[in-house]
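Subject: sequence -> C-alpha cells, single chain

Hey, anyone have a minute? Need the predicted structure for the following. Not urgent.
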Amino acid sequence: MELKRLLNIKYIIIVCAALVLNIILFMFQATAGGNKINEDSKRDLRIRTEYIENYKSNIQNIVDRAEKLKKQRLFSNPESFSYKNIIKTGKDYEKLININLSADNSKAVRAISKYSMFIGISAILTLLLMNNLFKERDNNMWQLTYMSKNGRVYLGLVRIADIFIISLIQHFLLYITVVFTSFILFGGLGDLYNPIQNISEFGQCTLVINKAEYLIADFLLTYLSVVVATSIIYMLMNVFRNRKNVFIGTGAFVIIEYFIYINTESQSIYRLLKYINICNLFRINTIYMEYINVNVFSHVVSLRYVLITAVIILSVMMFMISVLVYVKRYPNTEKGIMAKISDKINVEYQKIFNNYNNLFKEIHKTLLTSKGIWLIAAAIFAAVYFSTTGYVTFNDLQIQNDKLYKEHGGKDYTYIKNYVDSVLEKTDNANKERIEAQKKYDNGEIDFEEYFAAVSNYNSVSNSSVEIAEPMEKLSYLAKLKKETGIDGYIMSDRGYEQIFGKQSTVREIILLMSTQFVVMLIAFASVYIEKKSSMDKLINSSSGGFKYVNKKKLISVGLITLLLTLAVNIIEYTNLIRYYKVTYFQAPVQSLTFMGDIKINVSIIGWLLLLIVFKLIISTVTFSVTFIITRMVSKWQH
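Reply:
Had a minute. Here:
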C-alpha cells in the first residue's frame, strides 16, 4: 500500500525528468571543455603508452622499496604502525605485478568514474520520496496510525524498507543510463573484462578487478553515499516537525561545506575541514584511485574499508533513531519553545506584511509562499555550474597567438601585418637560398656543409611561417571583409568568443535556456495554482472585478520575476566566461570574428551579447505568458 501511494504519476514524471537531466549533465561533462576525454590525441596516446610500459617496473619498485624499508632500523619495530604499513603495502602491490595492461578503449569507464552529479540527483529524488512519507502530517491523518496496536513500529520499519527499495531502483536507473550513454558515446564495451588498472587514474588501485567489476562496485558504493546522506536528513525529519526548517538548514549546511571544500588548500592548517566534509560523499568513488592505510586498534586497514564500514554503521544508526523517534513521537503534543517563538515572529511579520502594496504581496506569494525562491536558486546554481565547468585549455601556439593579438592587435594591426610580411620574406629568401645551394651542390661548387647550412636555415625559418599561419588567415579574412562589406574589422582571437557565444557554446546555451524556461514555467504555474490549492480562487472569481485586478497584479509580478531571473542567469554566465577567457575588444564589429562573418547587421561584440540577452528575455516572456494564460484559463474553466 505504501509503495503504491508513493509511486504516483507525479513522482514517476519527476524521476523520468531526472533521468533526462542526468544524461544531459553527463554528456556535457564528458564531451565539453576541460573535462573532454581526448584519448585519441597523439599526446594522450603517448602518455598512456608510457604509463603501460612503466607500470610493472613502478609496481616492482614499490614492492622492492617496501622490502628495503622494513629492514631499516627506523622501521624495524614489528609492533609499530610504520612497520605494519610497510608489510601491508608490499603485499598489496605484489598482487599487481602479474597484471598485464593494454592500451584498450577505456574512454567510457573513465568518463563514468569522473562523473558524480548523478549521486546528488539520486539524493534529491530520495529526499522528495521521504518528504512524501510525511505528507500525512499536513492533513493530520497520521493520528490514525496511533490508534492501532504497534502501528507506529510496523509503519516505521515498512517506510524504511520502502525508502531502500525505491531509492535503490532509481539510483540503478540513474547509474545505468550513465553507463549506456557513455558506451554509446565512446564505445569500448568489449574491453570491460580488462583490468581497471588500464586506466591511469587507477594505477594506485590494489584491487585485482576488471572494469566490469569496478562498475558494479562503483554503483554499490555511490548508493551507500546516497543512503548515508539521506538517512541523516530522514532522522532530522522525524525529530523535528517542521520539514521546511530541516530542508533549509540542510541546504545552508551543504552550501557552507561546499565553500569550505573548494576554498581550503590541502596544505592549510584547516585541511581537516576539507577531508571531513560532506562533499567527499559525492566523490566517494575516488577511494578506488588512491592507496591510503589507517591505524585501527593497532591494525593496518585500508581507508577504503574503513569508509565503507563507517557509512554502513552510520546509516543503520540513523534509521534506527528514526524508528525510535517515530514510535515515541505523538501528534498532539504541546508546542516547544522554538515553535512558540516562530509563531510569534510570524504573527508580527504578518502585521507588517499587511501594510505592503498588492504587487509586493504577489511577488511575496510567488517567491516564498509558492517556494519559487528554490526554483530561482536552482536556476542560478545551474548558471554558475555550467559557466564555471568545461573550460577549454589552449595549446602553446594558440596562447602565443592570443598574446600577439592582445599586445598588437585590435583596430590598428600594422605591427602584425609587418611581422607576417617579414616572416614571409625571410621564408621566401631562405627557400631561394636553399634552391640555389641545391644547384651549386649538384654542380660541385659547394661542399655538403654549406649545402646543409642552407637547408637547416630554411627549416628553421619555415617553422616561423607555421606559427604565423593563423595571423595570415586572419589578415586575409579582414581584407576580404573590408572589400565585400566595407567593415573595418579588428584582428583578434576567435577562441574565447567561440566558447562564450559561438558554436562551442551550443550545449551550454541549450541547457541553461531549457533550465531557465523550465523554472519560468513552474513559477508561472505555481503562482496560479497556489490560489486554487487554498480555494482562494473561488473568492477572487466571485467578487466584482476581483479576477481582473488580481490577474493583472499577478501577471506583472511573475513577469518581473521572469525578466530579473533571465537577466541574472545571463549576467552570471557571460561574466564568468569573460573573466576566465580574458576576452577583449568588445567595441569591435562582431564580424571581426571569423565565425560571425555571415552576420548582416552592423553591431559590436558587446551589442551582439546584449541582443542575445534581449532574445532570451523575449523567449522567457513568451514562455511565462503562455504558461500563465493557459494555467489561468484552465483554472477558470474548472471553477
